[in-house]
Each structure stands twice: as structure tokens, then as C-alpha cells.
Amino acid sequence: MKRSTTPLHYLASLLMLVALFVSSCSQPDKVGETNMLFGTDSKVWKTDKETTATGDKVAQTSADKDTELRFFANGTFNMTSAAQTMQGKYTFDQAGKKITMTPDGGTTSMAFDVTNLTEKKMTLKGTDGSTMMLEAD
């Protein structure tokens, strides 16, 4: 028995293939477990890319690339660059996908949305909409 195919069947098949392709190719950002931030004791993160609030790429200087942000398991951090050194405390709300850093002696905290956190990559979004993509060192 010969089966007839109509344009509707072709369209349905094509839509199904497109849906399968899109779902397999798109990999949404995820925020992993808290220990991905600091490893077993501490982890160093370096800036990979930055964008402005409008999505424009920010040019990375060699000093930017040499800046290190280290998170420790005990809730402290330090940031070192050619221009400055900063240390303080941080809190990471994994469920709320937020990290807040408070420098020692400071009264103002820096809060970021964590839009991606894996063993090797982290993306932080500032309150102004700018983003910073970091890679584990």
C-alpha cells in the first residue's frame, strides 16, 4: 500500500527537525553549585571579555587581562591588578543567582547577578546591565 504525503506532512516534519536542532544546539546558561566559585579551597578567575550595558564589547588592556579575582571557601575574596589590590567578604546566593562583595573597610557592596557559573567560566552582570565574562585560571 502506497502512503500519500501531503505538503502538511512535509511541513510538520520540517518543523520537528528544526525544533530538535534548536533544542540540541542552544545551551542555556546555568549557575552551578557554590563550590564551583571557589573550588576546594580557593579559585582564581581572570577577565575574558566585558560588554557595556548596551552589549558593546569593551576592549581588554593587558592590565585588565592580568587582573585576578580569587574567591576563598571561607567567604573572603581578593582582587589584584597592576592598579590596585582589594580584599573583603562575599556572599553567594546560589538559588537567587547573586553574588555580593564587600571590600574590607568599605560601607558599599558590589552586587552582581551570576548568569553563568561552571567549573571553567563565570558571567557576572552588573546592576547597570554591563557584563563580565571570567575564566578560571
Overview of the structural elements:
The protein is an alpha+beta fold. The chain has a single domain, classed as Lipocalin, CATH 2.40.128. Helix content is 20%, strand content 40%. The chain is built from 3 helices and 8 strands. The longest helix is centred in the first third of the chain and has 19 residues, at 7-25. This is Lipocalin-like domain-containing protein. Residues 1-26 form the signal peptide. Keywords: Signal.
- Distance from first to last alpha carbon: 64 Å
Strand content: 35-45%
Strand line-up in the sheet with most strands:
1-2-3-4-5-6-7-8
Reported CATH architecture = Beta Barrel
What is the N-to-C succession of helices and strands?
Answer: HHEHEEEEEEE
Which structural category fits the helices and strands?
A: alpha+beta
Q: How many strands in all?
A: 8
Instruction: Count the DSSP helices.
Output: 3
Which parts are unreliable, with pLDDT below 50 for 5 consecutive residues or more? 8-27
CATH class: Mainly Beta
**Helix proportion:** 10-25%
- Shape designation: globular
Protein name: Lipocalin-like domain-containing protein
Keywords: Signal
Organism: Hymenobacter daecheongensis DSM 21074
In short:
It comes from Hymenobacter daecheongensis DSM 21074. By secondary structure, the chain is an alpha+beta fold.
Secondary structure layout plus pairing:
Blueprint (H helix, E strand, L loop, with lengths): L6 H19 L9 H4 L3 E10 L10 H5 L1 E5 L3 E5 L4 E9 L4 E6 L6 E8 L3 E6 L4 E6 L1
Antiparallel strand pairs: 1-2, 1-8, 2-3, 3-4, 4-5, 5-6, 6-7, 7-8
